[in-house]
């Protein structure tokens, strides 16, 4: 069964535009409502899409009203918005929304104990998922959730996340109450470097070898000093070393209609956009 009438929140977040851009190119299209807070950044125009303005600090009643008449809610909010994401779950139940696609996108499992210890914000993702699981059990089938993992920068560029979300919305029964694992690539940093060298006129790029644990410790110190980039670097390393999705029972590339991409082809596209890569 397909969930046709879809509400979105977080359209102006870092990942939101990538999802909406990809979905806008799909056929048949979804009927989409974007929930926009009063002081949010302007939202680009998308086909088959309308805006619904909500307060900056919406109550349960505000969210219930905005969600009525929808089959699903897709969330792309930052994990720091824990209270709002929990309230959205309650609003889904109150408004009769059947599916809540959680803001659990990422290249690592948020309930991995190593990940949770290093990145405290990811505990919020687990908290939302556990709360939704309880609501699903209490609702006796009227409400459910799904989430997606393994979405890196290259995959955002290729629209993987949008197609994966579409797979969730089009396969309601198969994706019910599941963390789904998708990927465009399973490559090492050496694979990535060699792909860029291959499309850069044979240029050899500088390599600095460092162990994952050593690098994480270095980034932890920078993160504790306030560096957001260091946090992203830790997530990247964890994704490279702890995300063996193909071995997961919920590996969902086939279910989502996704195929493995060619890393060299992506490297060629990026070099074409930015020009020569400095060694």
Which terms summarize this structure?
single chain; 279 residues; alpha/beta; Rossmann fold; NmrA/Isoflavone_reductase-like; NAD(P)-binding protein
Explain this structure to me?
It is a single chain. The chain is α/β, with parallel strands linked by helices. The chain has a seven-stranded parallel β-sheet, sandwiched between helices. The chain is globular, with a radius of gyration of 19 Å. It has twelve helices and seven strands. 45% of the residues lie in helices and 13% in strands. Helix 1 (16-24) links the parallel strand 1 and strand 2 (31-37). Helix 1 (16-24) crosses helix 7 (160-170) and helix 8 packs across helix 12. 35% of the residues are buried. The protein has two domains: 5-184 and 245-256, NAD(P)-binding Rossmann-like Domain (Rossmann fold, 3-Layer(aba) Sandwich), CATH 3.40.50; 189-242 and 263-274, no CATH class.
Structure summary:
The chain contains twelve helices and seven strands.
Radius of gyration, in Å, reads: 19 Å
Tell me what the CATH architecture of the largest domain is.
3-Layer(aba) Sandwich
The residue ranges in which pLDDT falls below 50 over 5 or more consecutive positions are none
CATH class of the largest domain: Alpha Beta
Question: Fraction of residues in helices?
Answer: 40-55%
CATH fourth-tier homologous superfamily of the largest domain = NAD(P)-binding Rossmann-like Domain
> Care to count the β-strands?
7
Keywords: NADP, Oxidoreductase
Protein name: NAD(P)-binding protein
GO molecular function, one term: oxidoreductase activity
Pfam families: NmrA (PF05368)
């Amino acid at each position: 069964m397909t969930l046709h009438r879809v509400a979105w929140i977080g359209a102006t977040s870092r990942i939101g535009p990538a999802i909406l851009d990809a979905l806008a190119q799909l056929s048949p299209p979804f009927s989409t409502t974007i929930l926009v807070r009063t002081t949010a950044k302007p939202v680009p125009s998308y086909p088959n899409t309308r805006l619904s303005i909500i307060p900056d600090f919406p109550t349960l009643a505000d969210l219930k009203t905005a969600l009525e008449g929808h089959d699903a809610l897709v969330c792309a909010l930052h994990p720091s918005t824990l209270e709002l994401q929990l309230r959205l779950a309650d609003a889904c139940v109150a408004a009769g929304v059947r599916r809540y696609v959680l803001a659990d996108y990422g290249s690592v499992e948020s309930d991995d104990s190593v990940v949770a210890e290093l990145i405290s914000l990811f505990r919020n993702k687990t908290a939302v998922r556990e709360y939704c699981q309880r609501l699903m059990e209490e609702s006796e089938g009227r409400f459910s959730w799904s989430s997606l993992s393994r979405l890196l920068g290259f995959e955002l560029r290729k629209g993987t996340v949008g197609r994966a979300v579409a797979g969730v919305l089009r396969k309601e029964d198969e994706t019910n109450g599941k963390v789904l694992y998708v990927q465009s690539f399973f490559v090492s940093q050496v694979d990535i470097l060699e792909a860029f060298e291959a499309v850069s006129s044979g240029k050899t790029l500088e390599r600095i070898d460092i162990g994952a644990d050593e690098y994480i410790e270095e980034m932890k110190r920078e993160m504790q000093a306030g560096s957001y980039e260091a946090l992203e670097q830790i997530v990247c390393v964890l994704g490279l070393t702890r995300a063996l999705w193909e071995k997961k029972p919920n590996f969902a590339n086939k279910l989502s209609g996704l195929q493995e991409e060619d890393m060299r082809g992506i490297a060629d596209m990026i070099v074409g956009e930015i020009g020569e890569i400095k060694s």
